[in-house]
Specification:
Length: about 400
């Protein structure tokens, strides 16, 4: 089964074409192409993602990225020379609100022969509505033009499935996928979400805890902004934290709270921690060097709360596996601390981390979720669901 996957929920335009073979319990995959075009530099000057810029960029990037992907995947893109007015009218109706994308499809995609793929998967939420709609309407127009089924995918389900692939191998290699044992507990930490999810099987989820305010990645971004660091803030904060300890300087002793560490539920709250970091930063001498202990202590606080609650939940729900996913899963301290705490438990828990190039948004993870848990849906019934939840 060959899946073309499309991801545009935030500020990355991503396309993957992935071939799955073998039984669903023991499949192998061949990654034919996995492309991400990041808009992060464009949004950086605003300190966060601007939805309409994201929409504009997705419109601009999707067709060139798909053509590049088809070339990499060696999917023949010979022209069939057809000039099909009926198809053209249909495409124009689907892409009524994305005229630039529509023009590119009519010019560059419509004249091509339908490629050898079995389904088109697309992220339909959660995410930014204008960004999601571009990907969805693009997927719908391809499904219509090529007569292929459409599989809508939950973005967080994609992050969860990214932990099934701990490396992406070399290009065009066949990789075996070992399915983790269920129940699995997933800690999903991204710019928009922070969730603890019990997974009882493919497509069977229960959210047992989530953030009551800011997501972990969002808190990293906001504290980075307070400290005058770049966007996205996560990598900036960890880079700075690594410089600790700074020698030869009297650094202020810094202690930040661990919000909800001891609450009886599995929810999180990072907004108070961000405010505590702000007040602290306003009180101490503000120099490039004093940023270092603040970054370090902030990162320690986030990682401590995330990992403690994950371990506690894993025990209560008797998880056989722990999966980590989402942009914040790139954080080295988080990856290592969770590994150490799992080891300390001395229970046999299979710890799954996504490959380093799969922590951020990508379309490969969307193809994985589509293959294992996806369901075809009539295109007319697929729309952007900005607040979609795993269930
Ligand atoms: O999953 P993702 O790429 O996009 C969303 O779905 O939101 O996550 C992006 C988030 C950003 O907030 C970014 O600051 C954070 O992931 N992030 C990190 C690191 N790398 C990215 N947070 C902490 N440490 C990192 N190394
Ligand atoms: Zn994401």
């Amino acid at each position: 089964m060959k899946i073309l996957a499309i991801e545009t929920s935030c500020d990355e335009t991503a396309i993957a074409i992935v071939e799955f073979s073998g039984r669903k319990e023991k499949p192998t995959i061949k990654i034919l192409t996995n492309l991400v075009s990041s808009q992060v530099k464009l949004h950086a000057k605003y300190g966060g993602v601007v939805p309409n810029i994201a929409k504009r960029e997705h419109q601009k990037n999707l067709v060139p990225l798909l053509l590049q992907g088809m070339k990499e995947a060696r999917i023949p893109s010979s022209k069939n020379g057809r000039k099909n007015e009926e198809l053209q009218t249909g495409i124009e109706a689907i892409l009524e609100r994305e005229p630039e994308l529509c023009g590119q499809i009519l010019k560059k995609i419509l004249p091509l022969k339908a490629p050898d793929i079995d389904a088109i998967a697309v992220t339909h939420g959660p995410g930014l509505a204008p960004a999601l709609w571009v990907g969805i309407n693009f997927a719908k127009s391809l499904a219509y033009t090529w007569n292929k089924p459409l599989i809508p995918v939950n973005h967080m389900e994609g992050h969860l499935y990214s932990a099934f692939l701990q490396n992406t191998g070399t290009k065009n290699n066949r990789l075996p996928i070992t399915i983790p044992q269920f129940p699995a507990l997933a800690l999903l930490v991204s710019g928009g979400h922070t969730e603890l999810v019990v997974m009882h099987g493919h497509g069977k989820y229960k959210i047992i805890g989530e953030t009551l305010d800011d997501a972990a990645g969002e808190a990293f971004d906001k504290v980075a902004r307070i400290l005058g660091l770049g966007y996205p803030g996560g990598p900036e904060i960890s880079r700075l934290a690594e410089k600790f300890p700074v020698s030869g300087n009297k650094l202020p002793v810094i202690k930040l709270p661990r919000p909800m560490l001891n609450s009886s539920d599995y929810n999180f709250s990072f907004s108070g921690l961000k405010t505590a970091a702000l007040y602290l930063w306003q009180k101490i001498p503000r120099t490039p060097k004093t940023k270092i202990p603040v970054a370090k202590e902030f990162q320690n606080a986030v990682v401590e709360v995330l990992t403690e609650k994950t371990i506690r939940a894993a025990k209560e729900y008797k998880a056989k596996s722990i999966l980590l996913g989402g942009g914040v899963a790139a954080n080295q301290l988080l990856r290592i601390t969770l590994a150490e705490k799992i080891k300390k438990e001395r229970q046999k828990i299979d710890y799954r981390l996504p490959a380093a190039n799969l922590t951020g948004d990508n379309a490969l993870m969307i193809s994985l979720a589509a293959f294992f848990a996806g369901k075809k849906k009539a295109p007319a019934k697929v729309g952007a669901e900005p607040n979609l939840k795993l269930s």
